[in-house]
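The passage that follows is intended for readers who have already worked through the single-chain material. We present the inputs for a multi-component assembly, then the predicted structure in tokenized form, and finally a short commentary. You are encouraged to pause after the input and sketch how you expect the pieces to fit together before reading on.
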Amino acid sequence: MAEVTQLLQALKAGDDASDELIEAVYGELRRLAAVKLARERGQTLQATALVHEAWMRIAGPTGDDGSSLRFENRAHFLGAAAEAMRRILIERARRRQSLRHGGGHGHVDLEPDALVELPPSTDLLALDEALQRLTALDPAHGKLVELRFFAGLSIVEAAEVLGISRATADRNWAFARAWLFHELSPESRGGAAADVES
Amino acid sequence: MPPGPEHALPSGPRHKSSRLGLLERLFAGALERPAGSARKRWLQNASGNDETLVAEVASLLEAHQAAEGFLESGAVVQSVEPAELEPVHVGSGVGPYTLVEELGEGGFGVVFRALQSTPIRREVALKVIKLGMDTRQVIARFEAERRALALLDHPSIARVLDAGATDRGRPYFVMDLAPGQPITEYCDELQLTTKERLRVFIELCSAMQHAHQRGVIHRDIKPSNVLVADAGGRALPKVIDFGIAKATGAEFGTGTLFTEMGQVIGTPVYMSPEQAIGSSDIDIRSDVYSLGVVLHELLVGETPFHAEELRQHVNGGDIAAFLAETTPAPLSGRVSVGDQDAADVARCRRTTPAELARLLRGDLENILHCALAPERERRYESAAAFARDLERLLSDRPIEATPPSVAYRAAKLLRRHRVAALASAAVLVALIAGLAVAFQSLTARQAQAELLREIFSTARFEDLYDATAADQQTPPDELDRLVIGAFGERDPIRVDALETLADRLVTSGRLAEGVEAQTAALAAARQIHGAGSAQATRQQAALGLLLARRGDPLLAEFELGAALAAERLLTGPVTTALHSARLELADLLEDSGQREAAIVLLEEADQIAASVETGDGARRIEALEALASLSRRNDDTAATRGIYTRLLELYERRYAQDSAFLVTKYVEYGRWLASVGLTEEASLPMDLALDALDRTAAPPVGLLFETLSALNRLYAQDPSLTTDSEARASLNREVLVASERFSGDATEYLDTLARCAEDLERRGALGRSTQLLTERFVRFEALTGENQLAEATQRARITLAEELLDRADAIRRQGGLPVETYRAARQAAEHVTPYFPGNRNLLEIRLVLATRTGEFAAMLGLLNEFEAASGAQGVHPLALAMQAIALHQTPGSQRAARRALSQAQELARRPEFISLPGLQEAVEWAAEAIYGER
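Having made your guess, compare it with the prediction:
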């Protein structure tokens, strides 16, 4: 925690979250998730709850050195947390997939700690790939989806992190979501939306 | 650049996003307009009538409609609850078993009555474990115990036959189907008296003693695991679930078992104190305690402590203290006169409360006090000793258990007070600080460490933890500060203190906190001794092991890997200090698909152990066993063979030639060789195993059976390994040993009969084979005869009968077989007769076979049946031939006999009978009987 706090304090307004910060936040979230899941077997863990709890632990009533973290640190933290959560979830999904395919002998070694739950019939890895394509076209859209889905932030929170208006966030979200949905629907793979790249 | 639709611009990276921008604007604009022709018109205009663009936006708009809720709720991390992943239900298949009926649901899983389809159709009990456990570990632990379990052979023990994983990875166990109801219910329903209850309980003790003598601890004795059924007017208890508690629950301390699942899962009321606190050091005296609880309940209708009471202490984390300090109320006091419950309890035992209290007072109280002592040293040392004391009581001889002494009670009181004093965090901190001051000199360090360790292990250090953790804000920091405050940041004892604390926490089931403490120990070791120091490395390895145990493979892999890397830098891998770390890391690596790395690590562990160890090679064996199983899974035949060679060398060095461990390993190796097709090579270790057993005066019958069975299956796999007559002898021996090993109605025995019958038939012993199949049918019939038959069982029985009938039919069609074969076939046909009432073909088969065996008396009986079935006399040539013989033997009927014979001869020439097997012989035989004597 102390490390995350220091890294956050070192950031100036307008800076992007550094790789180092993402790394540190990633470690914290993983640890937190593992502890929670070990205690509450059979429970689900909302990404948003995880991220917010991590923030509460970092910011606390006061920081370690007695000063409270600045408000803009929260935006940095959430940005880093969204990316970290995305990595955590994708890693789990990859691992799970490889276990499925490599299981052999007709039985699957279940990953002992956790699985990722997705909306029905959504493949997380496919979503991640589509999201990468969207990010290549428009990084802000990619970030928005990351914040909304992987960190579970509300539109208002996500708008704050991105420094855009609520209305813009709404519009962008509607577009990004439709674009991704279209990209993921099997009948239109390589269809109209994909043509954007050509 | 001329104005125009943007999509017409040459493509390039910069334009991709502007094209996206155009799409976005059109999309947003369209959304603001009502769907329908207005929107469509607007889109046409805004896009400059670009049809492609319009189509793209339209498809995005469609996606927008359909994407209602998509990605809206945010990602969720979910822990595995296999029960949700895989509904197991009646009718579904699990391995070779089909679930027939749900028998019940317990804390750990659901039990089904199941039908096994291969190699024999039989009914078993199948328990699917529902906890989110690591299946591989559960099965591995079961496999480790299997050898011991195979030695269990007692009428009051239901054996666990098999374990496996369902398609979705849930572990399951297959057991003998044990009829009956829980021991307490049984006794209450039949209103058994106290003495009768003691008798049933003594039977139970004898089963437990049998298991204990073979090194098997049950670990989960409770009424629902002791099922009692009537057996010829006697109550026969059957203990189920042997080996399952160990396979599924050994690693669960109270914390995990009771609270993390949000409900109480284990049965704390029947658990010994050492089990309840999650100690890994469990021995047979733990079962003795549980037996004591069961007896307590049998006697007074309730357990010494109530579930709710225990649950509170489990959740409160002070279960260990509670069990150690609390003496349950005496038995006799629980049935006080005038109490309605007591009156019910007494009536259930066909007595009055006053009489019952009198019975329970004194000896029985002392016996239970001894069985339920919180310190296991004070308990009966075995189930047999427990039973013996009860026998003494029943025969009015003096018992061995004595009432607790004054000294014992005083000691207990003293301890209670000391613990209460230490429970105050302030006192403990003062004590630690005081120690630090008192032991300033370096020479006293050792003593200080010792003393501290003692405090940590005897005092209730968790109380200190609880006191500091009460605010939930900064428990680890606070604890750190306490220890730092007491010893100073650079005091090496801090590492010891934290490691001891971690150990203590883990032992009492607080794994998560244990990890925190161990993490602190690692940090302290790094600070004091340096990051790459031997001390830090050891702490890091310890942390890794704890993380693995907590189920955090990634972190564990990291810590263990780092510790091993540090060791390499420090000294090179030359000590076995990190042996466990190597094994655990190899396990983790294999889990994450890095088999090669796991192999390297295990090889290294073996080499280090080989270079260091001079003793019995226990560490090498550990490493090589892991290596062997990994290599087997890797399908690497050459490597596996090499590993087994090394492993067997160690075994041969470590164990006597006729040791069961060595023999088992030979058989295991032989089985594996056979499984990869190296049959010739496989016969070597199998022969070694059998030789070793044959040299033993009284070989363990279970092991002998396993060995013979493995050898015979090998012979079946590769018939060229031995001659038919040798194979036949060996198969007959297997049947013989199986009949000693299993009770006649055990399903294994039936399996053995089926397998050996098949092999014997291939080896040309058709008669013996038929004999075995007949025996199997008869036993199967007896086995399922009393039960209310499930349809599936009925079908199975009829299938078996049909098989036998076919076989008898086939045999009668062949001439020139040894007479024993015909006799066996005839017996087979006779046994299945009740299943085919009025079947003429069967009667014919029996008649022909009787003819072939020359059993005249049998023929006459059949003749009557045959005539009754065919509705007319003398229309069948066989019947006529039989009749001729019968008449011939009756004085004064010689003419009638000759008439019958000539009729038979005439009929036998008719086309419909000409091909009837055995007819010709029968007619000739009759002719010989009548005319040949002249």
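Commentary: Chain B touches chain A through 60 residues (CB under 8 Å). Residues 491 and 627 of chain B are 41 Å apart (CA to CA). How closely did your sketch match?
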